[in-house]
UniProtKB/TrEMBL annotation:
Gene3D superfamilies named among the record's database cross-references: 3.40.47.10
Keyword terms of this UniProt record: Transferase
Domain Beta-ketoacyl synthase-like N-terminal: 36-217
Signal peptide (UniProt feature, chain positions): none
Species of provenance: Algoriphagus chordae
Protein name listed in UniProt: Beta-ketoacyl synthase-like protein
SUPFAM superfamilies: Thiolase-like
Protein backbone atom coordinates (compact mmCIF):
# COMPACT_ATOMS: atom_id res chain seq x y z
CA UNK A 1 0.00 0.00 0.00
CA UNK A 2 1.06 3.57 -0.62
CA UNK A 3 2.26 5.84 2.21
CA UNK A 4 0.27 8.91 3.27
CA UNK A 5 1.83 12.37 3.60
CA UNK A 6 0.56 15.64 5.00
CA UNK A 7 1.42 18.23 2.34
CA UNK A 8 -0.07 21.33 3.91
CA UNK A 9 -1.83 22.51 7.05
CA UNK A 10 -4.05 25.43 8.08
CA UNK A 11 -5.58 26.40 11.40
CA UNK A 12 -8.06 28.93 12.73
CA UNK A 13 -8.14 28.83 16.51
CA UNK A 14 -8.11 30.89 19.69
CA UNK A 15 -4.42 31.51 18.93
CA UNK A 16 -2.62 33.33 16.10
CA UNK A 17 -2.33 30.25 13.89
CA UNK A 18 -3.49 31.59 10.50
CA UNK A 19 -0.02 32.93 9.67
CA UNK A 20 2.07 29.95 8.59
CA UNK A 21 5.37 31.79 9.15
CA UNK A 22 4.99 31.85 12.93
CA UNK A 23 4.62 29.01 15.41
CA UNK A 24 2.96 30.10 18.65
CA UNK A 25 5.45 32.98 18.90
CA UNK A 26 2.75 35.12 20.47
CA UNK A 27 0.45 33.11 22.72
CA UNK A 28 -2.91 34.56 23.68
CA UNK A 29 -3.57 34.06 27.37
CA UNK A 30 -7.18 33.80 28.54
CA UNK A 31 -8.96 33.89 31.88
CA UNK A 32 -12.31 32.41 30.91
CA UNK A 33 -14.23 29.16 30.52
CA UNK A 34 -15.17 29.70 26.84
CA UNK A 35 -12.60 30.60 24.14
CA UNK A 36 -13.65 32.25 20.88
CA UNK A 37 -11.60 31.59 17.74
CA UNK A 38 -9.68 34.60 16.42
CA UNK A 39 -11.33 35.66 13.16
CA UNK A 40 -9.12 36.11 10.10
CA UNK A 41 -9.96 38.74 7.45
CA UNK A 42 -12.84 36.80 5.91
CA UNK A 43 -13.30 39.44 3.19
CA UNK A 44 -9.94 38.40 1.73
CA UNK A 45 -11.32 34.91 1.06
CA UNK A 46 -15.11 35.17 0.81
CA UNK A 47 -17.22 37.87 -0.92
CA UNK A 48 -18.90 40.07 1.70
CA UNK A 49 -22.40 39.35 0.40
CA UNK A 50 -21.85 35.59 0.70
CA UNK A 51 -20.10 35.84 4.07
CA UNK A 52 -23.07 37.65 5.62
CA UNK A 53 -25.22 34.56 5.07
CA UNK A 54 -22.68 32.15 6.54
CA UNK A 55 -22.24 31.06 10.13
CA UNK A 56 -18.83 31.37 11.73
CA UNK A 57 -18.20 27.64 11.40
CA UNK A 58 -18.77 27.74 7.64
CA UNK A 59 -16.55 30.79 7.22
CA UNK A 60 -13.77 29.26 9.30
CA UNK A 61 -14.00 26.02 7.32
CA UNK A 62 -13.88 27.73 3.93
CA UNK A 63 -10.92 29.94 4.84
CA UNK A 64 -8.92 27.11 6.46
CA UNK A 65 -9.58 24.80 3.49
CA UNK A 66 -8.54 27.49 0.99
CA UNK A 67 -5.34 28.13 2.92
CA UNK A 68 -4.48 24.41 3.03
CA UNK A 69 -5.07 24.01 -0.70
CA UNK A 70 -3.19 27.15 -1.74
CA UNK A 71 -0.19 26.20 0.41
CA UNK A 72 -0.07 22.82 -1.33
CA UNK A 73 -0.55 24.34 -4.79
CA UNK A 74 -3.71 22.30 -5.40
CA UNK A 75 -6.83 23.92 -6.89
CA UNK A 76 -9.35 21.10 -6.52
CA UNK A 77 -8.81 17.99 -4.36
CA UNK A 78 -9.98 14.51 -5.32
CA UNK A 79 -12.14 14.34 -2.20
CA UNK A 80 -13.27 16.41 0.79
CA UNK A 81 -13.72 14.72 4.18
CA UNK A 82 -14.69 16.66 7.28
CA UNK A 83 -15.30 15.83 10.91
CA UNK A 84 -17.51 17.78 13.31
CA UNK A 85 -19.14 17.03 16.61
CA UNK A 86 -22.03 19.48 16.64
CA UNK A 87 -22.04 21.01 13.14
CA UNK A 88 -23.32 24.52 12.52
CA UNK A 89 -24.69 25.20 15.99
CA UNK A 90 -25.76 28.80 15.51
CA UNK A 91 -28.07 27.98 12.60
CA UNK A 92 -29.45 25.01 14.53
CA UNK A 93 -30.26 27.33 17.42
CA UNK A 94 -31.84 29.88 15.06
CA UNK A 95 -34.11 27.24 13.55
CA UNK A 96 -35.22 25.82 16.90
CA UNK A 97 -35.87 29.35 18.21
CA UNK A 98 -37.95 30.13 15.11
CA UNK A 99 -40.06 27.00 15.70
CA UNK A 100 -40.82 28.15 19.23
CA UNK A 101 -41.33 31.84 18.42
CA UNK A 102 -43.58 31.18 15.42
CA UNK A 103 -45.47 28.31 17.06
CA UNK A 104 -44.31 25.90 14.35
CA UNK A 105 -45.80 27.98 11.54
CA UNK A 106 -44.49 30.06 8.62
CA UNK A 107 -40.93 28.82 8.98
CA UNK A 108 -38.26 29.67 6.42
CA UNK A 109 -35.97 26.72 5.61
CA UNK A 110 -32.71 28.70 5.39
CA UNK A 111 -31.47 28.11 8.95
CA UNK A 112 -32.45 24.44 8.79
CA UNK A 113 -30.60 23.92 5.51
CA UNK A 114 -27.48 25.62 6.87
CA UNK A 115 -27.62 23.83 10.22
CA UNK A 116 -26.81 20.34 8.95
CA UNK A 117 -23.47 18.84 9.89
CA UNK A 118 -22.30 18.50 6.29
CA UNK A 119 -22.87 22.19 5.50
CA UNK A 120 -19.17 23.04 5.75
CA UNK A 121 -18.07 20.23 3.44
CA UNK A 122 -20.83 21.13 0.99
CA UNK A 123 -19.96 24.83 0.98
CA UNK A 124 -16.29 24.06 0.39
CA UNK A 125 -17.22 21.83 -2.55
CA UNK A 126 -19.44 24.56 -4.02
CA UNK A 127 -16.67 27.14 -3.65
CA UNK A 128 -14.14 24.85 -5.37
CA UNK A 129 -16.61 23.21 -7.78
CA UNK A 130 -15.33 19.89 -6.47
CA UNK A 131 -17.59 17.06 -7.61
CA UNK A 132 -15.62 14.26 -5.97
CA UNK A 133 -16.23 12.18 -2.84
CA UNK A 134 -17.60 14.40 -0.05
CA UNK A 135 -18.31 12.97 3.38
CA UNK A 136 -18.79 14.31 6.89
CA UNK A 137 -18.19 12.26 10.03
CA UNK A 138 -20.16 13.06 13.18
CA UNK A 139 -18.57 10.79 15.76
CA UNK A 140 -18.26 12.95 18.89
CA UNK A 141 -14.61 13.44 19.89
CA UNK A 142 -13.30 11.06 17.21
CA UNK A 143 -15.03 12.90 14.37
CA UNK A 144 -11.72 14.22 13.01
CA UNK A 145 -9.94 10.88 13.47
CA UNK A 146 -12.77 9.15 11.60
CA UNK A 147 -12.28 11.55 8.68
CA UNK A 148 -8.52 11.01 8.89
CA UNK A 149 -8.92 7.22 8.86
CA UNK A 150 -11.21 7.37 5.82
CA UNK A 151 -8.68 9.50 3.92
CA UNK A 152 -5.81 7.26 5.02
CA UNK A 153 -7.52 4.13 3.66
CA UNK A 154 -8.40 5.77 0.34
CA UNK A 155 -4.88 7.10 -0.21
CA UNK A 156 -3.15 3.88 0.81
CA UNK A 157 -5.27 1.88 -1.64
CA UNK A 158 -4.75 4.51 -4.37
CA UNK A 159 -8.44 5.37 -4.68
CA UNK A 160 -7.42 9.04 -4.60
CA UNK A 161 -4.14 10.94 -4.87
CA UNK A 162 -4.96 13.95 -2.68
CA UNK A 163 -7.72 14.51 -0.12
CA UNK A 164 -8.70 17.58 1.88
CA UNK A 165 -9.38 16.62 5.51
CA UNK A 166 -10.63 18.95 8.22
CA UNK A 167 -12.18 19.26 11.66
CA UNK A 168 -14.61 22.10 12.42
CA UNK A 169 -16.76 23.10 15.37
CA UNK A 170 -18.27 26.44 16.36
CA UNK A 171 -19.72 27.86 19.56
CA UNK A 172 -23.43 28.48 20.00
CA UNK A 173 -24.66 30.77 22.78
CA UNK A 174 -27.62 28.61 23.85
CA UNK A 175 -25.69 25.34 23.65
CA UNK A 176 -22.85 26.86 25.65
CA UNK A 177 -25.29 27.84 28.39
CA UNK A 178 -26.72 24.31 28.41
CA UNK A 179 -23.22 22.87 28.74
CA UNK A 180 -22.64 25.16 31.72
CA UNK A 181 -25.86 24.00 33.37
CA UNK A 182 -24.85 20.37 32.75
CA UNK A 183 -21.42 21.20 34.26
CA UNK A 184 -19.62 20.09 31.11
CA UNK A 185 -18.01 23.55 31.12
CA UNK A 186 -16.22 24.75 34.23
CA UNK A 187 -18.32 27.01 36.44
CA UNK A 188 -15.34 29.21 37.24
CA UNK A 189 -13.10 31.16 34.87
CA UNK A 190 -9.66 29.63 34.53
CA UNK A 191 -6.32 31.06 33.44
CA UNK A 192 -4.85 29.34 30.38
CA UNK A 193 -1.56 28.74 32.16
CA UNK A 194 -3.29 27.22 35.20
CA UNK A 195 -5.76 24.93 33.42
CA UNK A 196 -4.23 21.68 34.69
CA UNK A 197 -4.03 23.10 38.21
CA UNK A 198 -7.77 23.86 38.38
CA UNK A 199 -8.65 20.38 39.71
CA UNK A 200 -12.38 20.91 39.08
CA UNK A 201 -15.02 19.23 36.95
CA UNK A 202 -15.72 20.36 33.40
CA UNK A 203 -13.57 21.93 30.69
CA UNK A 204 -12.73 25.25 29.10
CA UNK A 205 -14.72 25.12 25.86
CA UNK A 206 -13.65 26.45 22.47
CA UNK A 207 -14.06 26.36 18.70
CA UNK A 208 -11.90 26.19 15.59
CA UNK A 209 -11.25 24.87 12.09
CA UNK A 210 -8.16 22.88 11.09
CA UNK A 211 -7.60 21.57 7.56
CA UNK A 212 -4.93 19.41 5.96
CA UNK A 213 -4.14 18.21 2.44
CA UNK A 214 -3.17 14.54 2.47
CA UNK A 215 -1.45 12.93 -0.53
CA UNK A 216 0.14 9.58 -1.36
CA UNK A 217 3.12 11.09 -3.18
CA UNK A 218 5.96 12.68 -1.25
CA UNK A 219 7.20 16.20 -1.93
CA UNK A 220 10.01 18.28 -0.43
CA UNK A 221 7.46 20.48 1.35
CA UNK A 222 5.69 17.66 3.23
CA UNK A 223 5.10 18.17 6.93
CA UNK A 224 4.96 14.54 7.99
CA UNK A 225 4.00 11.00 7.11
CA UNK A 226 0.81 9.61 8.64
CA UNK A 227 1.76 6.15 9.83
CA UNK A 228 -1.45 4.95 11.49
CA UNK A 229 -4.69 5.94 13.22
CA UNK A 230 -6.67 3.86 15.71
CA UNK A 231 -10.03 4.52 17.38
CA UNK A 232 -11.58 2.89 20.45
CA UNK A 233 -15.12 3.71 21.51
CA UNK A 234 -14.53 2.39 25.01
CA UNK A 235 -11.26 1.61 26.73
CA UNK A 236 -10.84 0.71 30.37
CA UNK A 237 -8.00 2.39 32.26
CA UNK A 238 -6.26 -0.90 32.89
CA UNK A 239 -6.34 -1.62 29.14
CA UNK A 240 -4.92 1.72 27.98
CA UNK A 241 -1.20 1.01 28.26
CA UNK A 242 -1.42 -2.46 26.71
CA UNK A 243 -3.55 -1.21 23.79
CA UNK A 244 -1.08 1.59 23.19
CA UNK A 245 1.87 -0.79 23.20
CA UNK A 246 -0.01 -3.10 20.83
CA UNK A 247 -0.68 -0.13 18.52
CA UNK A 248 3.03 0.71 18.45
CA UNK A 249 4.00 -2.94 18.01
CA UNK A 250 1.74 -3.20 14.95
CA UNK A 251 3.76 -0.33 13.49
CA UNK A 252 7.12 -1.91 14.39
CA UNK A 253 7.84 0.63 17.11
CA UNK A 254 8.47 0.63 20.84
CA UNK A 255 7.67 3.24 23.49
CA UNK A 256 11.34 4.29 23.61
CA UNK A 257 11.26 5.29 19.92
CA UNK A 258 8.52 7.90 20.43
CA UNK A 259 10.12 11.35 20.65
CA UNK A 260 7.02 13.17 21.92
CA UNK A 261 3.53 12.30 23.06
CA UNK A 262 0.80 14.91 22.59
CA UNK A 263 -2.04 14.44 25.08
CA UNK A 264 -5.50 16.00 25.11
CA UNK A 265 -5.42 17.19 28.72
CA UNK A 266 -8.41 19.50 29.23
CA UNK A 267 -8.37 20.19 32.98
CA UNK A 268 -11.34 17.97 33.83
CA UNK A 269 -10.36 16.39 37.13
CA UNK A 270 -12.64 13.41 36.46
CA UNK A 271 -10.94 12.22 33.27
CA UNK A 272 -7.42 13.67 32.97
CA UNK A 273 -6.13 10.64 34.86
CA UNK A 274 -6.34 8.68 31.57
CA UNK A 275 -3.46 10.81 30.30
CA UNK A 276 -1.62 10.55 33.61
CA UNK A 277 -1.53 6.78 33.22
CA UNK A 278 0.77 7.33 30.24
CA UNK A 279 2.66 10.48 31.26
CA UNK A 280 3.41 9.06 34.72
CA UNK A 281 3.90 5.56 33.30
CA UNK A 282 5.54 4.34 30.09
CA UNK A 283 6.12 7.88 28.78
CA UNK A 284 7.53 9.35 32.00
CA UNK A 285 10.90 9.93 30.30
CA UNK A 286 9.43 11.13 26.99
CA UNK A 287 8.82 14.73 25.94
CA UNK A 288 5.17 15.45 26.83
CA UNK A 289 2.99 18.04 25.09
CA UNK A 290 -0.51 19.45 25.71
CA UNK A 291 -2.61 22.01 23.80
CA UNK A 292 -6.23 22.43 24.95
CA UNK A 293 -5.27 25.30 27.27
CA UNK A 294 -4.60 27.16 24.00
CA UNK A 295 -7.49 25.96 21.84
CA UNK A 296 -10.18 24.99 24.33
CA UNK A 297 -11.99 21.66 24.31
CA UNK A 298 -14.45 20.87 21.51
CA UNK A 299 -15.37 17.73 19.62
CA UNK A 300 -12.82 18.20 16.83
CA UNK A 301 -10.14 19.89 18.96
CA UNK A 302 -7.83 16.93 18.32
CA UNK A 303 -7.42 18.42 14.82
CA UNK A 304 -5.63 21.34 16.52
CA UNK A 305 -3.36 18.79 18.20
CA UNK A 306 -2.73 17.27 14.75
CA UNK A 307 -1.81 20.73 13.45
CA UNK A 308 0.55 21.17 16.41
CA UNK A 309 2.25 17.81 15.78
CA UNK A 310 2.86 18.66 12.13
CA UNK A 311 4.34 22.04 13.01
CA UNK A 312 6.69 20.40 15.51
CA UNK A 313 7.87 17.83 12.98
CA UNK A 314 8.33 20.43 10.24
CA UNK A 315 10.14 23.04 12.33
CA UNK A 316 11.82 20.60 14.75
CA UNK A 317 10.98 23.05 17.53
CA UNK A 318 8.70 22.80 20.54
CA UNK A 319 7.14 26.04 21.85
CA UNK A 320 7.49 26.55 25.58
CA UNK A 321 3.73 27.14 25.92
CA UNK A 322 2.90 23.49 25.08
CA UNK A 323 5.60 21.72 27.09
CA UNK A 324 4.21 19.51 29.81
CA UNK A 325 7.53 18.36 31.23
CA UNK A 326 11.19 19.31 30.96
CA UNK A 327 12.62 16.25 29.25
CA UNK A 328 15.42 17.36 26.96
CA UNK A 329 14.67 16.50 23.35
CA UNK A 330 17.21 15.82 20.62
CA UNK A 331 14.95 16.17 17.60
CA UNK A 332 11.59 14.76 16.63
CA UNK A 333 11.21 11.70 14.41
CA UNK A 334 8.05 10.05 15.73
CA UNK A 335 5.17 11.80 17.47
CA UNK A 336 2.18 10.03 19.01
CA UNK A 337 -1.14 11.76 19.71
CA UNK A 338 -3.59 10.42 22.28
CA UNK A 339 -7.03 11.90 22.92
CA UNK A 340 -10.24 10.98 24.73
CA UNK A 341 -13.26 12.84 26.02
CA UNK A 342 -15.04 11.97 29.26
CA UNK A 343 -13.44 8.54 29.25
CA UNK A 344 -14.82 7.57 25.83
CA UNK A 345 -13.83 7.75 22.16
CA UNK A 346 -10.11 7.20 22.53
CA UNK A 347 -7.76 7.71 19.59
CA UNK A 348 -4.09 7.11 18.77
CA UNK A 349 -2.48 8.88 15.82
CA UNK A 350 1.13 8.23 14.81
CA UNK A 351 3.20 10.64 12.69
CA UNK A 352 6.76 10.46 11.36
CA UNK A 353 9.02 13.23 10.15
CA UNK A 354 9.41 13.36 6.38
Amino acid sequence: MKPVYIHSIASISAQHTVDESVFLDQVESYEDNVLQAIDPEYKNFIPRTAARRMSKGVKMGIVASKLALSRAGVEVPDAIITGTGLGCLKDSEKFVSAIIDNKEQFLTPTSFIQSTHNTVGGQIALELQCKGYNFTYVQASVSFESALLDAELQLKTDEASNILVGGIDELGDHTTELFKVAKLIKSEKVSSEALLESKTKGVVYGEGANFFLLCNEKSENCYSELIDTAIFNTLEKEELTSELQEFLKNNQLSVDEIDAIICGYNGDVQFDDYYELLTDGVFAQTQQVYYKHLSGEYHSSSAFGFWLANKILKTQTLPKAVKLNQVKDSGFEFILLYNQYMGENHSFTLLRKC
